[in-house]
Amino acid sequence: MSYENLLVEREENLAIVTINRPKVLNALNGDVIRELGLVADELEGDDSVRVVIITGSGEKAFVAGADIAFMSKLSPMEAMRFARLGQAVMRKIENLSKPVIAAINGFALGGGNELAMSCDIRVASERAKFGQPEVQLGIIAGFGGTQRLTRLVNPGLAKEILYTADQYDAETAHKMGLVNHVVPAEELLNFCKGMAKRIAARGPVAVSLTKEAINAGLEMDLDKAIGVEADLFGLSFTTEDRKEGIAAFLEKRKPAFQNK
Ligand code: DAK
């Protein structure tokens, strides 16, 4: 499938999705959001893809937020529909059955930071800048920012970020726990591909079940959450991948997982 605002490349078992509107710093309008939903569906259904990387086009921005020109024309009802669509797409990315890595190559502001927070893992280039500038526009974060940021960093920090609209450099974002790693800009994509390939070499069903256990568990109390883990642990014992992984260990060879 081809997209107007996204570039989609495949490399071995990886898919690299690049949001491609560099003239407006990859700002998210309705079309980009819709296409992100479509590409998520496409990659979900493609068994050859084991890990997804999302990044932004150009050297300046991952995503500089929702497209302000686009938003300025929305009626309240259209804004509500935009919010619902955006939230559903972020949720779809968050719940994709395969890991998603955000390669944050520059500004990740507002909806851009919210998109990054919907990914499983965030890696920032030294040039990246983070923030939730919505209150400066007289609106509030609408793609899950008030909730995901509070879960990722502590509530006090999330409130500071959301109330002040301040921008934070990559090192500060790292200290806050917003990103896992900070790497030189020119190494960002290779670093993310390296991590993605290590993940892709593991048992794909097991990685997927691990993601499911973590995501489901975050919304439950610990007793229920470890119950989900036990169920999924049992399920992992039914897979061909489990037979192959254990056989490969005993035979002292590398496993050849089949995602089954
Ligand atoms: N939207 C549209 N265009 C944008 C943009 C954006 N978010 N960000 C940058 N651009 C455009 C600029 O207008 C400029 O276009 P030209 O003037 O060249 O035509 C071009 O990109 C380059 O930007 P600058 O010239 O401004 O570049 P600088 O390096 O000087 O500054 C900057 C970079 C990222 C600091 C600055 O561009 C900036 O402050 N951008 C806006 C950041 C921002 O406030 N983003 C929006 C956050 S609010 C919703 C759900 C979610 C949301 C909204 C609604 N629903 C529930 C309905 C989300 C809201 C947000 O994301």
Describe the structure.
The protein folds into 2 domains: 6-200, Alpha-Beta Complex (2-enoyl-CoA Hydratase, Chain A, domain 1), CATH 3.90.226; 204-250, Lyase 2-enoyl-coa Hydratase, Chain  A, domain 2. The protein is globular. The chain is built from 11 helices and 10 strands. Helices cover 48% and strands 16% of the residues. The structure holds 4-(N,N-dimethylamino)cinnamoyl-COA. Residues 24-25, 27, 64-69, 71, 79, 82-83, 86, 107, 109-111, 133-134, 137, 142-143 line the site of 4-(N,N-dimethylamino)cinnamoyl-COA.
Draw up the topology in text.
Blueprint: E1 6-11, E2 14-19, H1 30-44, E3 51-56, E4 61-63, H2 68-72, H3 76-94, E5 100-104, E6 107-109, H4 111-118, E7 121-125, E8 129-131, H5 145-152, H6 155-164, E9 168-169, H7 170-176, E10 181-183, H8 188-200, H9 204-217, H10 222-236, H11 240-250
Parallel strand pairs: 2-3, 3-5, 4-6, 5-7, 6-8, 7-10
Antiparallel strand pairs: 1-2, 8-9
Helix pairs in contact: 1-3, 3-4, 4-5, 5-6, 9-10
The structure holds 4-(N,N-dimethylamino)cinnamoyl-COA.
4-(N,N-dimethylamino)cinnamoyl-COA (DAK) binds at residues 24-25, 27, 64-69, 71, 79, 82-83, 86, 107, 109-111, 133-134, 137, 142-143.
Identify the CATH homologous superfamily of the largest domain: 2-enoyl-CoA Hydratase, Chain A, domain 1
- The overall pLDDT, averaged over residues, is 96
Ligands bound to this protein structure: 4-(N,N-dimethylamino)cinnamoyl-COA
Contiguous uncertain segments of 5+ residues:
none
| CATH class identity of the largest domain | Alpha Beta
Helices and strands, in order, run as: EEHEEHHEEHEEHHEHEHHHH
* Share in β-strands: 15-25%
Total helical elements: 11
Distance between the termini: 25 Å
Number of strands: 10
Strand adjacency order, main sheet: 1-2-3-5-7-10
Tell me the radius of gyration.
Answer: 19 Å
Main pleated sheet: 6 strands, mixed
CATH topology of the largest domain: 2-enoyl-CoA Hydratase, Chain A, domain 1
